[in-house]
Design goal:
Chain lengths: 140, 586
């Protein structure tokens, strides 16, 4: 378990968190390479199916991150996302995934540092949780 | 005696003897010349209607004032010589025309009266006012209005007692200046003007007592004085609706207010200026006509400074205020050093306290060299405080800049006459609202965020909204002009095309899959989804859709999809990621 390197998928909105990730890059900030970003136009377009599919395929953690409340480029897409993530967090344990594996954050376009920190914190947290159920099954 | 106090005083100073309760009886003469005035003493009797006691002669109290001239001060009364031609007109006992006090209507309904004939001797102003009142009443009379209602006196306006600016605390009370009067001895012997008025200096000082508490009283003098006719009192706020295809936001910046930075003593010492204030001072149209002068305690400009300290980075490159560099300060600080040397004289000592000299532009480094050659003292180090507490004799009466020369590792106390603070440029206070209005975002420093720091420095996250100037980041004039020209060109390129392409990444609802549940209609923030009753499906209006995917994220049947972000595309992307991960053993 020592050398467990979790796989993280992050659904990030184009206008805030994706830009923040870009900024983290141009600012030469380092953060764990365990995360893979999937750019969406807005967190409001993240279909719960994407999240469930990711977990079922063996991902250890999923981050959904968009603009701060009130800053969504599409007025209120982030609020719609918040509702869906809340529901997902209730469903996930029934599939055998701890709800901590799913996170929703708001990271503004200028928060490059916060982006790097969020990823670092999340990777650390998933490491303590260990590999996800689905992955263990696949190994077996 | 109904005379003004100063008149009575003046007469007494000139040794005029006032005899009260004395009535003239007759003028005595000798050889056809006046020799005296016989008077009789009186006592005050019962009060009359006006409350004044009527004088009653005291029998046997006659006495004579010897004199050779008598001046009779005659009174005035109304000319009534024509009265018997209008017998219906009624007169008062004082010999004035009787009128209704509200309408000025006389006993003849079609005749109105005003002026001295009604009030007795009074001023022109009162006569004019009566004229106005009478005209209004005549107007009402001709239109057969009820005069009783019309002319009821308007109740005196009650002043709120609040309609002035708050007065600054701690103002010393100063007495009103009074004009000098000619010496009584001199004035009895000549016709020279007794009231000498104020001297120019006194008048200026008196004018400065004005606390400027009033808001504009609309006397319109400024309108007359402005030759460019730039003042319009009637201009009000207007709301305009302008149809445009693109917008360039160039709302500029605010200057950091150094008042809260107590160690610099701004607002406390009269000779601590901000950069913009110094700019104004040295401007030819400024308060001193372009002369660089220091101020005394009262704030009046007195003499040229012998030494000046210029402080860079006040509020910039400072974690307590703004971390960023304001970019323009180094160069204008050099300009100030040069201006002072040029205007006040090369012997003026100019101390320039800097962290780093950032002279990055065309010809800038050369200018820095030139200022060094002119003898400006460049000291690398931040000033810790400005104080007026002198420690030695040559610091007396000066401002002392306390700093450390970080190149020499030495603490310094530099006495100067004037201090200029190069204050930071910061995002405008209303930038948050402006950003909301235009749908653009702000960076951590509050300035508006461009679309991309390298590839999209003019455009913003909102199509058709461009940025120019210091609203995007602190910058000088050449960079602002360059950016603004670029933004204008961007806007023009949209305008000349005349049409905009609808973005491809918008939503689309597959009519074959859509079950017509209409969930998406309630979710769409742009009301871009409509329901097609005939086919029983929801349809996206491509011109309104912005492609947020609110509909796609929720659609239970999966009919709503955003082009380029379709479910199968995202899934494929995800699969690709997982495969790649597996390939490297993750
Ligand atoms: S655009 Fe970022 S969350 Fe909607």
């Amino acid at each position: 378990m020592e050398d467990f390197e979790p796989t993280l998928i992050a659904f990030v909105c184009n206008w805030c968190t994706y830009t923040a990730a870009d900024l983290a890059g141009t600012s030469r900030l380092t953060y764990p390479q365990n995360v893979r970003l999937i750019r969406v136009m807005c967190t409001g377009m993240v279909d719960p199916q994407y999240v469930i599919k990711a977990f079922l395929e063996g991902v250890d953690g999923v981050l959904v991150s968009g603009c701060h409340p009130g800053d969504c480029h599409y007025i209120n897409g982030n609020f719609k996302a918040r509702r869906r993530i809340k529901l997902l967090k209730e469903i996930l344990p029934r599939f055998g995934f701890q709800e901590e594996r799913l996170r929703l954050t708001w990271i503004g376009a200028s928060d490059g540092i916060q982006f790097a920190e969020t990823i670092r914190a999340m990777v650390a947290q998933i490491k303590t949780l260990g590999p996800s159920q689905a992955r263990l099954k696949m190994v077996i | 005696m109904p005379a003004a106090t100063e008149e009575i005083q003046g007469a007494q100073e000139e040794a005029v003897a006032l005899r009260f309760l004395t009535a003239p009886v007759r003028i005595l003469s000798e050889n056809g010349k006046v020799s005296g005035l016989e008077c009789i003493r009186t006592a005050l009797g019962d009060a009359d209607a006006s409350g004044r006691g009527r004088p009653v002669a005291l029998e046997g109290s006659e006495f004579v004032i010897p004199c050779d001239a008598v001046i009779v001060a005659v009174g005035q009364r109304t000319d009534q010589s024509w009265a018997d031609q209008v017998p219906e007109l009624q007169w008062t006992r004082q010999g004035t025309i009787e009128v209704d006090p509200n309408t000025l209507q006389t006993s003849l309904p079609h005749v109105f009266a005003g002026g001295d004939a009604v009030s007795g001797p009074a001023s022109v102003i009162e006569a004019v006012a009566a004229g106005h009142k009478a005209v209004a009443a005549i107007d009402g009379y001709l239109r057969q209005a009820d005069l009783g209602v019309q002319a009821a006196p308007t109740p005196a306006q009650k002043l709120s007692g609040e309609n002035w600016r708050p007065l600054p605390a701690g103002l010393p009370a100063e007495v009103r200046a009074s004009s000098r009067r000619l010496d009584p001895k001199a004035r009895v012997a000549s016709w020279a003007e007794v009231d000498c008025g104020l001297t120019e200096a006194e008048a200026l000082h008196e004018a400065q007592r004005c606390l400027n508490c009033g808001i504009c009283s609309e006397c319109m003098e400024c309108v007359r004085a402005c030759e460019a006719q730039a003042i319009d009192h009637y201009m009000g706020a207007q709301e305009l609706e302008v149809k445009v295809g693109s917008i360039i936001v160039a709302t500029g910046y605010d200057l950091l207010d150094p008042t809260p930075m107590k160690p610099y003593g701004y607002g406390l010492y009269p000779n601590v200026y901000t950069s913009l204030e110094f700019e104004r001072l040295s401007n030819a149209t400024g308060p001193t006509g372009g002369q660089i002068l220091i101020r005394n305690e009262e704030g009046r400009h007195t003499r040229e400074p012998q030494s000046v300290a210029i402080l860079h980075c006040v509020g910039s490159r400072d974690v307590n205020y703004h971390e960023y560099c304001s970019r323009v300060c180094c160069m204008y600080a050099l300009k100030y050093a040069h201006l002072i040397k040029e205007k006040v004289g090369p012997e003026t000592r100019v101390y320039d306290f800097y962290i780093d000299q950032r002279c990055y532009g065309k010809g800038y480094e050369e200018f820095y060299r030139r200022c060094q050659e002119e003898g400006t003292h460049f000291i690398r180090g931040r000033v810790a405080a400005i104080t007026d507490q002198a420690a030695t004799a040559d610091e007396a009466g000066k401002l002392i800049a306390i700093a450390e020369d970080t190149l020499l590792g030495q603490r310094l106390r530099v006495p100067v006459d004037m201090v200029i603070l190069c204050v930071a440029m910061e995002a405008r206070k209303d930038a948050v609202e402006v950003a909301r209005i235009f749908g653009i975002s702000q960076g951590a420093d509050g300035f508006f965020l461009e679309e991309h720091p390298k590839l999209g420095p003019l455009s913003t996250a909102t199509d058709g909204v461009f940025l120019a100037g210091a609203c995007q980041s602190p910058k000088g004039i050449p960079h602002t002009v360059a950016q603004a020209s670029g933004a204008a060109a961007k806007a023009l390129s949209l305008a000349t095309r005349g049409t905009v392409a609808v973005p491809s990444a918008i939503a689309w609802i597959d009519p074959d899959v859509c079950a017509g549940c209409r969930t998406c209609i309630g979710l769409c923030p742009y009301t871009a989804v409509e329901f097609d009753e005939r086919r029983g499906v929801s349809v996206v209006n491509a011109a309104l859709c912005k492609g947020c995917g609110s509909c796609a994220g929720f659609c239970p049947s999966g009919a709503a999809q955003v082009r380029h972000f379709q479910k199968k595309q995202i899934m494929a992307e995800f699969d690709g990621i997982m495969d790649a991960g597996q390939a490297v053993g993750m």
